[in-house]
Backbone:
Protein backbone atom coordinates (compact mmCIF):
# COMPACT_ATOMS: atom_id res chain seq x y z
CA UNK A 1 0.00 0.00 0.00
CA UNK A 2 1.36 3.38 -0.99
CA UNK A 3 0.42 5.71 1.82
CA UNK A 4 -1.17 8.84 0.46
CA UNK A 5 -0.97 10.59 3.83
CA UNK A 6 2.12 11.80 5.64
CA UNK A 7 1.77 9.49 8.63
CA UNK A 8 4.36 7.98 10.97
CA UNK A 9 5.49 4.48 9.97
CA UNK A 10 4.36 2.80 13.18
CA UNK A 11 0.91 4.26 12.75
CA UNK A 12 0.73 3.02 9.14
CA UNK A 13 1.91 -0.45 10.24
CA UNK A 14 -0.92 -0.63 12.76
CA UNK A 15 -3.46 0.53 10.18
CA UNK A 16 -2.30 -2.23 7.82
CA UNK A 17 -2.37 -4.88 10.55
CA UNK A 18 -6.00 -4.00 11.37
CA UNK A 19 -6.85 -3.78 7.66
CA UNK A 20 -5.92 -7.47 7.45
CA UNK A 21 -8.87 -8.44 9.66
CA UNK A 22 -12.01 -9.67 7.86
CA UNK A 23 -14.52 -6.90 7.14
CA UNK A 24 -12.12 -4.07 8.05
CA UNK A 25 -11.32 -1.66 5.22
CA UNK A 26 -8.51 0.87 5.23
CA UNK A 27 -10.84 3.66 6.33
CA UNK A 28 -12.21 1.76 9.33
CA UNK A 29 -8.72 0.59 10.25
CA UNK A 30 -7.42 4.16 10.25
CA UNK A 31 -10.42 5.30 12.30
CA UNK A 32 -9.71 2.57 14.87
CA UNK A 33 -6.05 3.49 15.13
CA UNK A 34 -6.78 7.17 15.73
CA UNK A 35 -9.48 6.22 18.22
CA UNK A 36 -7.06 4.03 20.18
CA UNK A 37 -4.24 6.57 20.11
CA UNK A 38 -6.40 9.59 20.94
CA UNK A 39 -8.96 8.23 23.37
CA UNK A 40 -8.22 4.66 24.41
CA UNK A 41 -4.57 3.85 25.03
CA UNK A 42 -5.77 1.41 27.71
CA UNK A 43 -7.82 -0.41 25.05
CA UNK A 44 -4.72 -0.61 22.88
CA UNK A 45 -2.77 -2.24 25.71
CA UNK A 46 -5.61 -4.63 26.51
CA UNK A 47 -5.85 -5.70 22.87
CA UNK A 48 -2.11 -6.13 22.62
CA UNK A 49 -2.04 -8.36 25.73
CA UNK A 50 -5.10 -10.34 24.64
CA UNK A 51 -3.45 -11.13 21.30
CA UNK A 52 -0.25 -12.32 22.95
CA UNK A 53 -2.16 -14.46 25.47
CA UNK A 54 -4.39 -16.01 22.82
CA UNK A 55 -1.41 -16.83 20.63
CA UNK A 56 0.53 -18.33 23.53
CA UNK A 57 -2.17 -20.21 25.41
CA UNK A 58 -4.83 -21.39 22.96
CA UNK A 59 -4.26 -24.95 21.80
CA UNK A 60 -6.46 -27.54 20.10
CA UNK A 61 -8.48 -29.88 22.27
CA UNK A 62 -7.08 -33.37 21.61
CA UNK A 63 -10.59 -34.84 21.55
CA UNK A 64 -12.75 -32.37 19.60
CA UNK A 65 -10.06 -30.33 17.75
CA UNK A 66 -11.60 -26.99 18.82
CA UNK A 67 -9.70 -24.20 20.58
CA UNK A 68 -9.04 -24.71 24.25
CA UNK A 69 -6.76 -23.61 27.08
CA UNK A 70 -6.48 -27.20 28.31
CA UNK A 71 -5.53 -30.42 26.53
CA UNK A 72 -9.17 -31.47 26.79
CA UNK A 73 -11.74 -28.69 26.45
CA UNK A 74 -14.61 -27.84 28.78
CA UNK A 75 -17.24 -29.62 26.67
CA UNK A 76 -15.24 -32.81 26.13
CA UNK A 77 -14.37 -33.04 29.83
CA UNK A 78 -17.92 -32.40 31.03
CA UNK A 79 -19.28 -35.67 32.56
CA UNK A 80 -22.88 -34.49 32.12
CA UNK A 81 -22.67 -34.61 28.34
CA UNK A 82 -23.94 -37.58 26.37
CA UNK A 83 -20.77 -39.33 25.17
CA UNK A 84 -22.68 -41.71 22.88
CA UNK A 85 -23.34 -39.06 20.21
CA UNK A 86 -20.67 -37.20 18.27
CA UNK A 87 -21.65 -34.18 16.17
CA UNK A 88 -19.28 -33.15 13.36
CA UNK A 89 -19.24 -29.42 12.53
CA UNK A 90 -17.11 -27.31 10.20
CA UNK A 91 -16.07 -24.51 12.56
CA UNK A 92 -16.07 -23.50 16.25
CA UNK A 93 -18.70 -20.89 15.33
CA UNK A 94 -21.04 -23.66 14.17
CA UNK A 95 -20.45 -25.38 17.49
CA UNK A 96 -21.31 -22.14 19.30
CA UNK A 97 -24.60 -21.83 17.45
CA UNK A 98 -25.54 -25.42 18.28
CA UNK A 99 -24.54 -24.84 21.90
CA UNK A 100 -26.64 -21.71 22.24
CA UNK A 101 -29.66 -23.50 20.74
CA UNK A 102 -29.37 -26.05 23.61
CA UNK A 103 -30.76 -28.72 21.30
CA UNK A 104 -27.73 -31.00 21.55
CA UNK A 105 -26.05 -32.40 24.62
CA UNK A 106 -23.55 -34.78 23.06
CA UNK A 107 -19.91 -34.23 22.10
CA UNK A 108 -18.45 -32.43 19.11
CA UNK A 109 -15.73 -32.81 16.55
CA UNK A 110 -14.68 -29.59 14.82
CA UNK A 111 -13.22 -30.10 11.34
CA UNK A 112 -11.81 -26.54 11.18
CA UNK A 113 -12.77 -26.32 7.53
CA UNK A 114 -14.41 -28.27 4.73
CA UNK A 115 -13.26 -30.28 1.75
CA UNK A 116 -12.48 -27.85 -1.03
CA UNK A 117 -10.34 -29.50 -3.75
CA UNK A 118 -10.14 -26.25 -5.77
CA UNK A 119 -8.39 -24.58 -2.83
CA UNK A 120 -6.19 -27.62 -2.28
CA UNK A 121 -8.00 -28.66 0.90
CA UNK A 122 -8.42 -32.42 1.01
CA UNK A 123 -8.89 -35.06 3.73
CA UNK A 124 -5.22 -34.79 4.62
CA UNK A 125 -5.27 -31.03 5.19
CA UNK A 126 -8.30 -31.39 7.49
CA UNK A 127 -6.63 -34.29 9.32
CA UNK A 128 -9.54 -36.71 8.84
CA UNK A 129 -7.29 -39.45 10.25
CA UNK A 130 -7.72 -37.89 13.67
CA UNK A 131 -11.53 -37.90 13.38
CA UNK A 132 -11.69 -41.48 12.07
CA UNK A 133 -9.43 -42.68 14.85
CA UNK A 134 -11.58 -40.83 17.37
CA UNK A 135 -14.80 -42.35 16.02
CA UNK A 136 -13.40 -45.87 15.84
CA UNK A 137 -11.46 -46.10 19.10
CA UNK A 138 -13.99 -44.35 21.35
CA UNK A 139 -16.22 -47.30 22.22
CA UNK A 140 -18.89 -45.07 23.74
CA UNK A 141 -19.90 -43.52 20.43
CA UNK A 142 -23.10 -45.02 18.99
CA UNK A 143 -24.10 -42.26 16.59
CA UNK A 144 -22.29 -39.66 14.51
CA UNK A 145 -24.35 -36.67 13.36
CA UNK A 146 -22.80 -34.88 10.38
CA UNK A 147 -23.67 -31.20 10.74
CA UNK A 148 -21.58 -29.65 7.99
CA UNK A 149 -23.14 -26.78 6.03
CA UNK A 150 -25.68 -27.39 3.27
CA UNK A 151 -23.41 -25.76 0.70
CA UNK A 152 -21.63 -27.53 -2.15
CA UNK A 153 -18.46 -27.98 -0.10
CA UNK A 154 -20.33 -28.88 3.06
CA UNK A 155 -22.31 -31.55 1.21
CA UNK A 156 -19.16 -32.98 -0.37
CA UNK A 157 -17.57 -33.16 3.06
CA UNK A 158 -20.68 -34.85 4.48
CA UNK A 159 -20.74 -37.47 1.70
CA UNK A 160 -17.07 -38.23 2.10
CA UNK A 161 -17.30 -38.51 5.88
CA UNK A 162 -20.41 -40.62 5.67
CA UNK A 163 -18.61 -43.04 3.34
CA UNK A 164 -15.52 -43.52 5.43
CA UNK A 165 -17.27 -43.54 8.81
CA UNK A 166 -19.89 -46.09 7.73
CA UNK A 167 -17.14 -48.71 7.37
CA UNK A 168 -17.50 -49.07 11.13
CA UNK A 169 -20.79 -50.98 11.38
CA UNK A 170 -21.21 -50.21 15.09
CA UNK A 171 -21.86 -46.54 14.44
CA UNK A 172 -25.08 -45.01 13.17
CA UNK A 173 -24.34 -42.13 10.77
CA UNK A 174 -26.91 -39.36 10.37
CA UNK A 175 -27.19 -35.94 8.75
CA UNK A 176 -29.24 -32.90 9.79
CA UNK A 177 -32.57 -32.75 7.95
CA UNK A 178 -33.16 -30.33 5.08
CA UNK A 179 -36.41 -28.43 4.67
CA UNK A 180 -38.29 -25.24 5.30
CA UNK A 181 -37.01 -23.08 8.18
CA UNK A 182 -39.28 -22.94 11.19
CA UNK A 183 -41.56 -19.87 11.21
CA UNK A 184 -41.19 -19.13 7.51
CA UNK A 185 -43.87 -18.76 4.86
CA UNK A 186 -43.87 -21.04 1.83
CA UNK A 187 -44.45 -18.06 -0.48
CA UNK A 188 -40.98 -16.73 0.25
CA UNK A 189 -38.95 -19.98 0.26
CA UNK A 190 -36.43 -20.52 -2.52
CA UNK A 191 -37.30 -23.33 -4.92
CA UNK A 192 -34.29 -25.42 -3.95
CA UNK A 193 -35.29 -25.61 -0.29
CA UNK A 194 -38.86 -26.27 -1.36
CA UNK A 195 -37.74 -29.14 -3.56
CA UNK A 196 -35.80 -30.70 -0.66
CA UNK A 197 -38.79 -30.25 1.63
CA UNK A 198 -40.87 -32.27 -0.85
CA UNK A 199 -38.25 -34.96 -1.39
CA UNK A 200 -37.62 -35.42 2.33
CA UNK A 201 -41.25 -35.07 3.39
CA UNK A 202 -42.31 -37.02 6.47
CA UNK A 203 -45.44 -39.07 7.05
CA UNK A 204 -47.73 -37.61 9.66
CA UNK A 205 -49.88 -39.73 11.96
CA UNK A 206 -53.31 -40.42 10.52
CA UNK A 207 -56.16 -40.37 13.01
CA UNK A 208 -58.42 -43.43 12.60
CA UNK B 1 -20.33 -9.68 29.36
CA UNK B 2 -21.78 -13.02 30.35
CA UNK B 3 -20.46 -15.47 27.79
CA UNK B 4 -23.28 -17.57 26.42
CA UNK B 5 -20.87 -19.94 24.66
CA UNK B 6 -18.48 -22.42 26.22
CA UNK B 7 -15.32 -20.77 24.97
CA UNK B 8 -11.79 -20.68 26.39
CA UNK B 9 -11.07 -17.60 28.54
CA UNK B 10 -8.20 -16.33 26.40
CA UNK B 11 -10.43 -16.46 23.35
CA UNK B 12 -13.18 -14.53 25.15
CA UNK B 13 -10.65 -11.92 26.34
CA UNK B 14 -9.55 -11.34 22.75
CA UNK B 15 -13.15 -11.06 21.55
CA UNK B 16 -13.82 -8.43 24.23
CA UNK B 17 -10.64 -6.49 23.40
CA UNK B 18 -11.65 -6.28 19.74
CA UNK B 19 -15.25 -5.47 20.72
CA UNK B 20 -13.87 -2.31 22.35
CA UNK B 21 -12.82 -0.90 18.97
CA UNK B 22 -15.21 1.63 17.38
CA UNK B 23 -17.71 0.03 15.01
CA UNK B 24 -16.92 -3.56 16.07
CA UNK B 25 -19.80 -5.46 17.63
CA UNK B 26 -19.52 -8.74 19.51
CA UNK B 27 -20.40 -10.77 16.44
CA UNK B 28 -17.75 -9.16 14.22
CA UNK B 29 -15.19 -9.42 17.01
CA UNK B 30 -15.85 -13.15 17.41
CA UNK B 31 -15.64 -13.62 13.63
CA UNK B 32 -12.27 -11.84 13.57
CA UNK B 33 -10.89 -13.94 16.40
CA UNK B 34 -11.86 -17.23 14.74
CA UNK B 35 -10.49 -15.96 11.45
CA UNK B 36 -7.14 -15.11 13.03
CA UNK B 37 -6.90 -18.37 14.97
CA UNK B 38 -8.02 -20.62 12.11
CA UNK B 39 -6.52 -19.00 9.04
CA UNK B 40 -4.18 -16.15 9.90
CA UNK B 41 -1.93 -16.72 12.90
CA UNK B 42 0.68 -14.63 11.09
CA UNK B 43 -1.81 -11.74 10.96
CA UNK B 44 -2.38 -12.14 14.69
CA UNK B 45 1.34 -11.85 15.34
CA UNK B 46 1.68 -8.85 13.00
CA UNK B 47 -1.19 -7.06 14.75
CA UNK B 48 0.23 -7.84 18.15
CA UNK B 49 3.65 -6.43 17.19
CA UNK B 50 2.14 -3.38 15.47
CA UNK B 51 0.19 -2.51 18.63
CA UNK B 52 3.26 -2.80 20.83
CA UNK B 53 5.36 -0.72 18.42
CA UNK B 54 2.71 1.98 18.08
CA UNK B 55 2.28 2.22 21.83
CA UNK B 56 6.04 2.39 22.43
CA UNK B 57 7.17 4.62 19.59
CA UNK B 58 4.42 7.06 18.70
CA UNK B 59 4.82 10.40 20.44
CA UNK B 60 3.33 13.85 19.87
CA UNK B 61 5.19 16.23 17.56
CA UNK B 62 6.33 19.13 19.76
CA UNK B 63 5.36 21.63 17.05
CA UNK B 64 2.02 20.46 15.64
CA UNK B 65 0.83 18.10 18.41
CA UNK B 66 0.05 15.30 15.93
CA UNK B 67 1.37 11.73 16.19
CA UNK B 68 4.95 11.23 15.13
CA UNK B 69 7.92 8.90 15.53
CA UNK B 70 10.27 11.86 15.90
CA UNK B 71 10.17 14.89 18.17
CA UNK B 72 9.29 17.00 15.13
CA UNK B 73 7.07 15.33 12.54
CA UNK B 74 7.63 15.00 8.79
CA UNK B 75 5.38 17.92 7.88
CA UNK B 76 6.77 20.34 10.49
CA UNK B 77 10.36 19.49 9.53
CA UNK B 78 9.77 19.80 5.77
CA UNK B 79 11.64 22.93 4.53
CA UNK B 80 9.42 23.12 1.41
CA UNK B 81 6.31 23.95 3.42
CA UNK B 82 5.10 27.50 3.82
CA UNK B 83 5.90 28.33 7.46
CA UNK B 84 4.00 31.64 7.39
CA UNK B 85 0.57 29.96 7.55
CA UNK B 86 -0.66 27.78 10.40
CA UNK B 87 -3.83 25.74 9.97
CA UNK B 88 -5.64 24.60 13.13
CA UNK B 89 -7.57 21.33 12.83
CA UNK B 90 -9.41 19.16 15.34
CA UNK B 91 -7.91 15.75 14.58
CA UNK B 92 -5.09 14.05 12.64
CA UNK B 93 -7.80 12.68 10.29
CA UNK B 94 -8.80 16.25 9.39
CA UNK B 95 -5.15 16.96 8.65
CA UNK B 96 -5.01 13.88 6.42
CA UNK B 97 -8.02 15.04 4.41
CA UNK B 98 -6.49 18.49 3.90
CA UNK B 99 -3.19 16.88 2.93
CA UNK B 100 -4.77 14.60 0.36
CA UNK B 101 -6.67 17.54 -1.16
CA UNK B 102 -3.24 19.19 -1.78
CA UNK B 103 -4.88 22.61 -1.35
CA UNK B 104 -2.71 23.67 1.56
CA UNK B 105 1.06 23.76 1.83
CA UNK B 106 1.50 25.48 5.20
CA UNK B 107 1.94 24.02 8.66
CA UNK B 108 -0.65 22.49 10.98
CA UNK B 109 -1.62 22.48 14.60
CA UNK B 110 -3.75 19.53 15.70
CA UNK B 111 -5.98 20.24 18.71
CA UNK B 112 -6.73 16.53 19.30
CA UNK B 113 -10.31 17.39 20.17
CA UNK B 114 -12.69 20.30 20.45
CA UNK B 115 -14.13 22.42 23.26
CA UNK B 116 -17.02 20.49 24.76
CA UNK B 117 -17.95 21.88 28.20
CA UNK B 118 -20.66 19.26 28.72
CA UNK B 119 -18.01 16.52 28.49
CA UNK B 120 -15.66 18.49 30.71
CA UNK B 121 -13.31 19.37 27.86
CA UNK B 122 -12.14 22.97 28.17
CA UNK B 123 -9.12 25.00 27.00
CA UNK B 124 -6.99 23.36 29.69
CA UNK B 125 -7.79 19.78 28.63
CA UNK B 126 -6.90 20.62 25.01
CA UNK B 127 -3.70 22.36 26.14
CA UNK B 128 -4.46 25.64 24.34
CA UNK B 129 -1.46 27.18 26.13
CA UNK B 130 0.79 25.17 23.84
CA UNK B 131 -0.97 26.45 20.72
CA UNK B 132 -0.97 30.08 21.88
CA UNK B 133 2.71 29.88 22.74
CA UNK B 134 3.40 28.34 19.34
CA UNK B 135 1.47 31.08 17.52
CA UNK B 136 3.03 33.91 19.49
CA UNK B 137 6.65 32.80 19.65
CA UNK B 138 7.01 31.57 16.08
CA UNK B 139 7.83 34.84 14.31
CA UNK B 140 7.35 33.32 10.86
CA UNK B 141 3.60 32.92 11.27
CA UNK B 142 1.60 35.64 9.51
CA UNK B 143 -1.77 33.91 9.25
CA UNK B 144 -3.69 31.36 11.27
CA UNK B 145 -6.50 29.49 9.47
CA UNK B 146 -9.01 27.98 11.86
CA UNK B 147 -10.27 24.78 10.22
CA UNK B 148 -12.32 23.23 13.02
CA UNK B 149 -15.56 21.51 12.04
CA UNK B 150 -18.73 23.47 11.30
CA UNK B 151 -20.56 21.76 14.16
CA UNK B 152 -21.72 23.42 17.39
CA UNK B 153 -18.55 22.37 19.22
CA UNK B 154 -16.27 23.16 16.29
CA UNK B 155 -17.77 26.65 15.99
CA UNK B 156 -17.39 27.26 19.72
CA UNK B 157 -13.77 26.19 19.50
CA UNK B 158 -13.22 28.47 16.48
CA UNK B 159 -14.75 31.47 18.26
CA UNK B 160 -12.71 30.90 21.37
CA UNK B 161 -9.46 30.44 19.44
CA UNK B 162 -10.18 33.46 17.28
CA UNK B 163 -10.66 35.59 20.40
CA UNK B 164 -7.49 34.57 22.17
CA UNK B 165 -5.29 34.47 19.07
CA UNK B 166 -6.40 37.91 17.82
CA UNK B 167 -4.75 39.51 20.86
CA UNK B 168 -1.56 39.18 18.84
CA UNK B 169 -2.01 41.96 16.27
CA UNK B 170 0.75 40.63 13.99
CA UNK B 171 -1.29 37.59 13.02
CA UNK B 172 -4.18 37.49 10.57
CA UNK B 173 -6.90 35.08 11.77
CA UNK B 174 -9.17 33.44 9.21
CA UNK B 175 -11.80 30.71 9.07
CA UNK B 176 -12.74 28.36 6.21
CA UNK B 177 -15.70 29.67 4.20
CA UNK B 178 -19.18 28.24 4.58
CA UNK B 179 -21.45 27.66 1.60
CA UNK B 180 -22.74 25.22 -0.94
CA UNK B 181 -20.48 22.21 -1.61
CA UNK B 182 -18.87 22.17 -5.03
CA UNK B 183 -20.79 20.09 -7.59
CA UNK B 184 -24.05 20.07 -5.66
CA UNK B 185 -27.50 21.17 -6.76
CA UNK B 186 -29.33 23.91 -4.88
CA UNK B 187 -32.54 21.86 -4.86
CA UNK B 188 -30.98 19.32 -2.51
CA UNK B 189 -29.08 21.64 -0.13
CA UNK B 190 -30.29 21.88 3.48
CA UNK B 191 -31.74 25.27 4.42
CA UNK B 192 -29.00 25.99 6.94
CA UNK B 193 -26.20 25.73 4.38
CA UNK B 194 -28.31 27.73 1.94
CA UNK B 195 -28.78 30.48 4.54
CA UNK B 196 -25.02 30.66 5.11
CA UNK B 197 -24.38 30.75 1.38
CA UNK B 198 -26.66 33.83 1.16
CA UNK B 199 -25.18 35.55 4.20
CA UNK B 200 -21.59 34.97 3.07
CA UNK B 201 -22.22 35.64 -0.63
CA UNK B 202 -19.34 37.16 -2.62
CA UNK B 203 -19.43 39.95 -5.17
CA UNK B 204 -18.58 38.82 -8.68
CA UNK B 205 -16.78 41.03 -11.17
CA UNK B 206 -19.15 43.14 -13.27
CA UNK B 207 -18.21 43.59 -16.90
CA UNK B 208 -18.51 47.22 -18.00
Residues:
Amino acid sequence: MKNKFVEPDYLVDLVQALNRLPGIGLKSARRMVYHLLQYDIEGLEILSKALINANKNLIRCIKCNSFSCQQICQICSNPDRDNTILCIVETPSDMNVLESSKIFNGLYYVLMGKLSPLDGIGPKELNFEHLIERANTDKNILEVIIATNFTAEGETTAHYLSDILSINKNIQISRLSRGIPSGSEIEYIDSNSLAWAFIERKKTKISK
